[in-house]
Amino acid sequence: MKIERVTLREITMPLVHFFETSFGRTTTRRIILVEADAGGVSGWGEVSCGERPFYNEEWTDGAWLILRDFAVPRLLHREIDGPEQAGHWMAHIRGHRMTCGGLEAAVWDLAAREQDMPLWQRIGGGARRRIPCGVSIGVKDSVEDLLETIERELAEGYQRIKIKIKPGWDVDVIRQVRRRFPNIRLMADANSAYTLADIEHLKRLDEFYLMMIEQPLGYDDIIDHAKLQARIETPICLDECIRSAHHAEQAIAMRAGQIINIKLGRVGGFAEARRVHDVAQARNVPVWCGGMLESGIGRAHNVALSTLPNFLLPGDVSASKRYWARDIIVPEVEVSPEGVIDVPAGPGFGYAIDTDYLKSVTVREETLH
Question: Is 263 a catalytic residue?
């Protein structure tokens, strides 16, 4: 395989409803798409970082520069045996995993299309052909608004509800959710909003029999999570602090959590995501697929990833319409009334690009030869 040309596109799309976490509110997404070409075949990837360096150190404008000046030049016109090697040639770039992961995902999609096979098959997935879906609900303006949103999402069939929490929007809010919905599969995501000083407060969440609390402590911490897990009954799910299979091995050995969220971009693409998956599976730690407000391309990649066998819990892979009035793929990703997504059978990530709409939302474009 020899990558002959890479096109970077930044698209801007407004969310149908703002999405708020402990580190801020998002109303519009600026997303970088990566198109890699070889021999007349194109593969597509998506850089999933946010507009600001708040989830981690990456952000849209920085990602563009890293791709243009460092990541893409390391792959252009280089003979590689397959997409498994793409990450190797970007390994000298410290951090910036979401940025490099967007390019790496495009190479995997390209390889699948060259072989006329689905992306999920090319990455070694296929354990399931229907993906169970959960939904992530941000901080709302009122508890009643949150309860109404949960009601709507359950009516759509979603199998698990995740709500964002932060100091001042946690225990009392979850208590009201449990009062209204005593039997649903419920989890909380803190996005690193707490410290070990909050142990007694976080222990109060044990009464609500949550599936898990996601990344309650520092985004780069494993040790304090182990201390917290020893003091609370609610399983901890690790997200931001797991950037590699080695991190997963360390966290599991330290009993820092009982579940791992795998985000394709956060770990740098499909090759490392598979390694994290395998580490967790070998130690009987379940994983699920997290989301980053992706467009349809990133969403389709998450569907493919979720077909690996140890993705045992409903992920954040939800329908396009939850986020976009119109997506950039056709057909859009849909969730059935049973709360599942059917895995597409077509080559690559399995959906077509809505080229006219893509052009209309593209705000900058650059092709590297």
Answer: yes
